[in-house]
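Changelog-adjacent note: as of this version, every example in the card shows the full chain rather than a window. The one below runs 651 residues end to end.
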Amino acid sequence: METDIKPKKLSGNRFVRFGHSLWKFFVFIAKTFLWIVAWPYMFAGKHRTRLDQSIERLKTERYSEEHIRVHRFWMNIKYRFLKIFRWLAVWAVIWWPILLFFERAYLHPIVLFVSIKTPVILLLALVGFLFVRKFNRVKKTSNKIITAAVAITIGVGTFYLGEWTYDYCAYAYNFHTRIKAQEISVLPETDYEKVHARVTVHGVAERDRTEDTQDVTLAHYVRDIDDGEHYWTMGVEPSKTKWVQYLFGNVSQVFFTKGNSLSLRFDKESKEVTDVDFQFGEYLLFSNNIEQAAIKKLNALQYWRYEPADYAIYINRGSKPDENGEMKKDWVQVIPVTKWVGVLFPMPEPAGVIVIDQNHVSYVEKIFLGAGDFVSRAEVRDTDYLQGQLLIPESYSVYMANCFRFYHSLFAPMPGNHEGDIRIPNIPNNFTSFPFKEYFRMSKVDSTGNAYDGFYHYIPLSPFGDKNLLSLSLFVAGDDGRDVYYIDHKKTGTKMDGPSSIPSRVVDGNSNYDWSKAVPTEVSPVVKTVHGERHLIWKSAIQTYGDDERTQITFGKTELFFLVAKDLSASIRLEGRDASTANWQSGFESIIDPPDGWKPPVELIDSEIEIPEQEIIVKPTISQDSTSQVNTVKIDSVLYEKEKDTLSINQ
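Full-length structure tokens:
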């Protein structure tokens, strides 16, 4: 009696069968990998025996000696080739973990991409697996063609719409679940404003203050712990166009200049340069590259989700006496680190910083372990020289600004709708970047009293399209990104112009310039109280192009343009020494009309000052300041000062 033997079916539901198929698929991939690695080793061992057998066969078949000699020659070449492959295969199996560990800095972008896009990759793998399974089961040619056409359509749609759809869902999900922002009703005042734009500072240092074998990193605005002043700082590195320099060189100097300085010198006579000795730099190669050093410093868990920046911020950790007893600034390199949080829709967050000092590490440690000390996000505000600095990555603030597109509605960014859609505005030239980095006195406008005064990332959001109105202002704390504030300008009922319209307004109002060689650079906000009211004023400077491609800026005379956001016709130009920050307040008062019923503060003269008995003539002049005011009377060589709330009298 014959019995039909049927293959054993898997018990359980479709999910169990699918899991079994998926496991078989991964086993197949693993076997394929091992076969590719091991086949030269297995085959080369048998080839010696096959060679001897083939020689004996040729002899029995009475081939000529010459034929046998040629055959032996080519077989020996093949044998040696396979022997080399066998050696490589063996050493690859032994050394590949060490090589992967050694080269983990180069593999980090791939690992990070897979870690962030894991849901998308698994979804695509599932779709591909189901398609292959369905395609193999279809018997008819017509059905195979239909199945392939459907798969191609899905693939093309995923390629063009998949990323947009994923980002849309990610921004919406993170806005409603992870972003915790506090609404404020008044713009915070700015302080420690910068006279020169970042592109101007970098252009002067790059073109006029360095040699041909040197390059300057991008400038960063930092607070100095010694004097409390704020400086532009840059590192001087070997030129990235001279391979001998960036292969064997190091960071030799740091340029720094006060943000309110009118002149940019960067020499030792003006004390705007100091000698340093850093092993790692932005333009250096291999293990001397600062990004690689930071990546190698991450532990096994951080490696999968942490992303160090590719630049360093030069900050003074506090002056220390050198070998001669002179006080010298202790410069360190600070590298911001981003952490991706979440599984389905990961979102970037500041994770802290990596601090690298000037102490040299050994060659072995530099290659395998990197350099620096990791300072977590929670420890940043407890570290004196890091507190209040600009340390969060720009990508974090930009991501949050994109999430705020869903502030008015879930369907605001939907194509064909855009009702209530707000976005980062487009600036006509490449010399203004978002987010703006300014010092805000946030404690004066925060009702909870938990805000701190320091640097914030400020992003103005405008209506979708080519609209120039300012819809919403977003503020993100610059040191750790925990504090997020926003102002909905639609609620105030006051329409203000955004930064995208400022370059064209500057060009239209100054027809005497040759705009083929000049350009308005780096629009930035200035917020001051003028005539008792808070005003947003846009600042821009005019600089000339330093090359025919219009990619660099050459330093010219200091010219600043200020335009009031409420009314762009209220504008003023300050140039030369008049562009000093000390003259900004009086300039704003001259272009902004006081509101109805506003009265200036009562003029007071301190009666407690004892005036020497001599005939003098005192001619006071009044000027306002947004913070504290000083009542000053100068008699002969004696200067008496006393603080007042709203008055400054100077002779």
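Structural remarks: Confidence is low (pLDDT under 50) at residues 1-12, 604-651.
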